[in-house]
Amino acid sequence: MRLVSNNHTHEQVNAHLTNSPNGLVNFLQSNCDNMEDEENSKSALSVPLSKPKGFVELRSSSQSSSSNASMEEQSIGIPVQDVSISSTLPSSSDLAPPASSDLEDALIRVSELTKKYWKAQEVAEKERKARSFLENELQQKHTDLTKERAIREMLEIDQATKNRDLVALQANLKDSQTSSESHLKALSEQYESEKNAYGTKIDDLNTEHSQLSTRLENALSELDKSRQEISKVENVVTEKENKLVISQVESERYREDLKSKENLLEQSASHKDELQKKILMQEAEKKIFSEQLDSANKEIKHIKELLDVSETKLVEKESAVNEAEKLLLQKNEDLNLCQSKFTQQQEKNKIQLKLLEEVNMAKDDFEKKLSDLSSGYSVLVDNFEKNQNELGKAKDEITSLHKYIDEIESGLKEKDKDILLKNDELGQCRTEMDDMRAYHEKSTVILRAECKALEEESKQQISELTDGNKNMKLFLNSLHQKVSDLESESEGFEQILSGKEEEYLNSLSSKDKQITDNELLISKLQKEIECLKQLEEESKGKKKEYNKQLNEMTTSNDAMIANSQKLLDDLRGSEEKMRAKVEEIKLLKTSLLTTEENLQKKDTELVNFRGKICELDMSYQRNVKLLEKAEAEKIENEKKLSKVELDFNSCNDELREVRNELSGIKVTVMEKEVAAANLLEKELRRKNEYLQASQAKLHKAQIENRRLDSMLETVQKKEVELVEKIGNLSSCKMVLLKNIDDLEQKAIDDRMIIASMEAELEAEKFPQESTHVRIMILCERVNDVHKKMIQSISGVLVHRVEDAPIATHVIAGNDHSSLRRTSKLMIALSCTENILHMDWLAHSARAGKLLPCKNYLLLFDKKSEKEQNIVMRETIRNGRACRRSGGLLFGYSIYFCKGVAGKSSPPEHELNLIISSAGGVFLQELSQDCYPENTIIIASDPVTDNQRDEPNVEMVAQEGNGFFTSSWLFQCIMTQELNFQVYTKKSLSTPISNRKDAKYSRSRTGSLSCAISVCSIDSSKSGLTRTSRRTYS
C-alpha cells in the first residue's frame, strides 16, 4: 500500500512541501480523495476541522508492498489560517528525501520540524507578550517620570515665587523698620501717656471677654443638653413610630383575622341554615310519613273492624248452623252442601287471614326498617344535638315523634297480640266446630240408627200384635177364660201404643216444623252467603286496592329509605362538617381569646403611649422654653458682640488718629529718640505681641460666634424639623385617635360577637350529669376495667396533661392511695370542682348512669390534706369563685427564671398549662413595658446571681412584688387562694417594709370576669390518651 498514487512523483511532493505547509495539506487531501476510490486501500487520512485552536490533524498509516511491515500512525498538526512562516521553517533541501527511499522518513522529519517550528512560534509569542508587557511598564514609568518632572517644575516655580515674596517681604521689613524707627521716637512719648488708658480699656475688654466666654460656655452646655434631650426625644419618637407601625400592622392582621373569622361565622351560619332547612324537610317528610302511617293504621283498623264484624257474623252463623245441625237430622245432605260452602268460605277467610298476616309481616318489616331508621336517626340526632341548641329542640320533637311512633307501635303490637289471640280463638273455634261437626255427624248417624231400630221394633211389634190378634181371634173361642185378662192387658197395651203413636205423630209434626224452619234458615243462610260473596268481592277489590296501596307504600318506603339513607349520608357529612366547624369555632375561640388578650395589651400599650405622648408634649414645651431662652441669650450675646466690635473699632480709630498725630509731629530731639529707641522698641514689641494676642482672641471669638451662628442655624433647622415632627406627631395622634376609636368600636363589636358566641356556647353546654363527660384518673393506672366502666356511662377517658383543662371529672383518690400534688391535679383544680373518689366511677358504672358528684367529693382525706397543707372543701369553694371571675391568676403575668423549670418543678410546657388554666399569662421573657405590680417572678430559693442578672428581673422585682418560689405558687394553686403574706421574700435591694400592705394583704379568690378562659369551655373539648404522672414538691 502506498501513501500516494503512482501519478505523483517525489518531486511533486517536494515542490508542495517547499511551497507552504498548506500546499502539503492540499496535496495530501487530493491524494486521500484519489485513494478513497480504490477498493484495497487500508490506510486513511483524516482532516478534522473541529480543532479548538485552529489546527488540522492528519493521520496516516502505510504498509510497504515489499516487506508488508506496518507503520505506526503519524499525526501532523498544521494551522488552517494563513500563518507567516519565519526563518525557522526548514528549507526544501532539508525536506527533500532521496529518490530511492520512502516518504516516511520525510514525513517524520516534517513532523519534527513542524513541532520545532510551532515551539519556536510559541516561544516567540511569549517573547512578544513579555516585550509588550515591558513596553507597557516602560510607558507607565515614562508617564510617571513626566508627572514627577512636572511636579518638580511646579515646586521649583513655587519656590521661586516664595523666594521672591520673601525678598519683597525682607525689603518691606527693612522699609518698615526704617519708618518705624523714625516714628517710634515720636510715638514713645504719646504711647506712654496713652498706655494707662489703653491698659484700662484692655482690662475692661478682658473682663467682658471672660464674661462672654463663660456665657458662651453655658450656652454651649445648654445647647448640648438640649441636643441630647432632642436626640432622646427623637429616639423615643422613632421607637413610638415603629410601635405605631407595628400596631398598625398587627391591627391590619387582626382585621384580616376578624374578617376571616366573620366569613367563617357567616359560612357556619349558612351551614346552620342549610341544616335547619334539611331538618325542616325531614320533619315535613316525617309528618307526611306519619300521616301515611296514620292512614295505613286507619285502614288497618277499618279492616280489623270488618274482620271483627265478619267474625261475629261467622260466630253467629256457626251457632245457627250448630242449632240447625242439632235440629236437622233428615236433611243432612243439604247441610253437608251448606257445610262445604261454609268450608270454602272459611278457606277464603283463611286466605284473607294469610293475606292479613303477610300484610302484618310487611308491616312488621316496615316497622323494623322504621325502627332501624329511627335508631340511626336518633344516633345522628344525638350526635347532632351535641353541637346546636336548636337541634336540641328538634331532638325533643323527634323524641316526641318517636314516642308517638312507639305508642303506635305498642298499640299495633297490642292489636297484633289481640289479632293473634283472636286467631287462636278462631282456631279453637274451628277445632271446636270440627269436633262439633264430627259429634253432629256421629249423633246424626246414631239417631238415624236409633230411628231405624225403633221403626224395625215398631214394625216387629205391629207384626207381633197382628199375629197376636190373629191368634187371639183364633183362640177366643177356645180361651174365653183368659179373655178378661187379655182384654185388660190389651187395653193397657193399646193405651201405651196410642200414647206412643201420638208421641211419634207429635215428633213427626215437630220435625216437620223444624224442617220448615230449617228451610227458612237455609234460605236466610243462602241470602247471607250471597251477601258474604258480595262482601268477599268487595274485600277482593279492597284487597287489590290495598295491594296497590301496599305496592305504592313499598315503593314510597323504598324511596323514603333511599332518601333517608341519602339524608343519613348528608347528615354524616354535615356532622363531619359541623365537627370541623366546631373545631374551627374552637380555634376561632382560642384566636379570639388571643385577640382579646392582644387587644387588652394594646389598650394598655395605648394608655402607656398616651402617657408617653403627654410626657413628650411636656418635654417639647420645656424644649421650646429652653429654645426661647437660648434665643434671648443669643440676642444678648449679639448685642454684647456688637458693643465689643464698636469698642474695637473706636480703639482702632483712636490708634489711627494717634498715628496721624504722631506723623504730624516733627522730631525735635534726635538724641533723646535714639536713647529711648531701644526701650520703645522693646515696649512696642510687647505691645505688638499683646495686640497680636488680642487679635487672635478676637479672631477666636469671631470663629466662636460663627460657630454659634452655625449652631443656631442648626438649632433653627432642628426646630423646624421638630415643628414638622410635632405636626406629623399631631397627625399621627389624630390617626391614632381615629384608629383607637375604630379599634374600640371593633373591640365592642368583637365583644358583642364574643358575648353571642358565649351565649351559644353556654346554650351548647351539657349539664353536669351529661352523658358527654371527660374523666381523668390520677390515683391508679388505667386498665381495661376502668375503660369499660367509663364506656358504660358513655364517658371519654382523658390521659394527657395537655387535655387536663378539658376534664370534667377527676378521680384523684381511692381507698389505698391519697391525694398527690401533680401538674394534672393543679390544672384540674383550676378548671373543675369535681375532684372525686374512685367509688363514684364504680357506682355510676353499676347504675348505668352518671350519679351526682356531691356525695363523692374528696372532702374527708385528712391525711393528704395534712400532707398538702390544704382543706379540700375550701379549695373547691375558692376554685368555684375564681372560675366565676376568670381564674386564680387572672390579670397576672408569671415569669420563671432560668434554672427553675424542670428541676424542682414541672417542665416549661406543663407550667404554661398550669398558669393558663388558672387564667394567668406565661411570660417567656420580661420586657420594660410590663407592669411590675401585676408580674410575679418565680426564682429559686435562695435567688442566684445569674437569675438577678437576667434582663429587667431586678428592676421588676424592686418595683413590683419581688421574688417568689415555685412551692409558694403551687400551694396557692392547691388552695386556690393568692396569699402574698405567706411568702414575702424579695430582693436585697428592696426591703419588705417599703411595700404597700394593700398589695399583699388581699387574698385573691377572684378577679374581673373573663368568660373566655380555658376553664369555661371544659365540657366542649375532647382529649387523647397519654399518661403523664409526676409529683412535684
UniProtKB/TrEMBL annotation:
Broad class of where this protein is predominantly found: nucleus
CDD domains: BRCT_MDC1_rpt1
Subcellular location: Nucleus
Annotated ranges, domain BRCT: 787-858, 884-978
Any one GO BP annotation for this protein: DNA damage response
GO cellular component: nucleus
Matching SUPFAM superfamilies: BRCT domain (SSF52113), Tropomyosin (SSF57997)
Region feature (Disordered): 1-23
Stretches assigned to coiled coil: 188-334, 483-552, 627-718
Keywords associated with the record: Coiled coil, DNA damage, Nucleus
Record-given protein name: BRCT domain-containing protein
Organism expressing this protein natively: Corethron hystrix
Upper lineage: Eukaryota, Sar, Stramenopiles, Ochrophyta, Bacillariophyta
